[in-house]
Amino acid sequence: MGREYNQEKSRSLAPKAPIDVVGGYVLVEHVGETVVTCGFVVQQRTDHQITGETMKFLTLADWTGMVETELFAQTYKCYGLATVR
């Protein structure tokens, strides 16, 4: 009795962004690439890399579901403040 996920319908219902934003459902198509994604921060925690530098783990929710992501030290220093909810 669950609803079937329709990827094409989901893409057509997705909000339009002024830049190319990659939704969670197609991240697997961009392995090894730098992409822009967005969503609501539903979970977050900081930890330390082996070097001792701070990094952050985020769970983002968008119109397609949830995705786990990491901000390694250099990225966290540049963009970590933008992830504060």
Give the CA-CA distance, first to last residue. Answer: 35 Å
How would you sum up the global shape? Answer: globular
Q: Please report which band the strand proportion falls in: under 5%, 5-15%, 15-25%, 25-35%, 35-45% or over 45%.
A: 25-35%
Mean pLDDT: 78
Number of folding domains?
A: 1
Spatial ordering of strands, largest sheet: 1-2-3
What is the helix content? Answer: 10-25%
* Unreliable stretches covering 5 or more consecutive residues: none
The overall strand count is: 3
Order of helices and strands: HEEEH
Output the number of helix runs.
2
Query: What structural class do helix, strand and pairing data support?
Result: alpha+beta
C-alpha-based Rg, rounded: 15 Å
The major sheet is characterized as: 3 strands, antiparallel
Brief summary of the model shown:
The protein is built from two helices and three strands.
Give a written overview of the molecule:
By secondary structure, the protein is α+β, with helices and mostly antiparallel strands. The chain has one domain (7-83). The chain contains 2 helices and 3 strands; from the N terminus they run H-E-E-E-H. The chain has a 3-stranded antiparallel sheet with strand order 1-2-3. A hairpin with a 2-residue loop joins strand 2 (54-62) and strand 3. The longest helix has 7 residues, at 7-13. The protein is globular, with a radius of gyration of 15 Å. The chain starts with 6 loop residues before the first helix and ends in a 6-residue tail after the last helix. The mean pLDDT is 78.
Helices and strands in order, then pairings?
Elements: H1 7-13, E1 40-48, E2 54-62, E3 65-71, H2 73-79
